[in-house]
Amino acid sequence: MTTSKRVAEKKVAKFEKNITKRGILPNQRGNKGLEPIHIFLVLFAVLFIGSFIFQVVRMALNGGLLPR
């Protein structure tokens, strides 16, 4: 049983259409903005870096590692 030329061309056109769409996905995540984990990480980083700077300044003013 042979397929007609019209049916074969329709299959080829459908296949070619799918080939051009390969790898293209819709943006499922979207733009949600800041999520709670991002806010938590930023606050943690600010506290950690701020504490480090505070300790360095305090050590520089006291003149060493041992408190007076």
UniProtKB/TrEMBL annotation:
Signal peptide: none annotated. It is found in: Endoplasmic reticulum membrane. The keyword Transmembrane helix applies. GO terms for biological process: endoplasmic reticulum unfolded protein response. It is a single-pass membrane protein. The chain crosses the membrane at residues 37-61. The keyword Secreted does not apply. Pfam families: RAMP4. Keywords: Endoplasmic reticulum, Membrane, Transmembrane, Transmembrane helix. GO terms for cellular component: endoplasmic reticulum membrane. PANTHER family: GEO09675P1 (PTHR15601:SF0), STRESS ASSOCIATED ENDOPLASMIC RETICULUM PROTEIN SERP1/RAMP4 (PTHR15601). Belongs to the RAMP4 family. This is Stress-associated endoplasmic reticulum protein. It comes from Solanum chilense (Tomato). The lineage of its organism: Eukaryota, Viridiplantae, Streptophyta, Embryophyta, Tracheophyta.
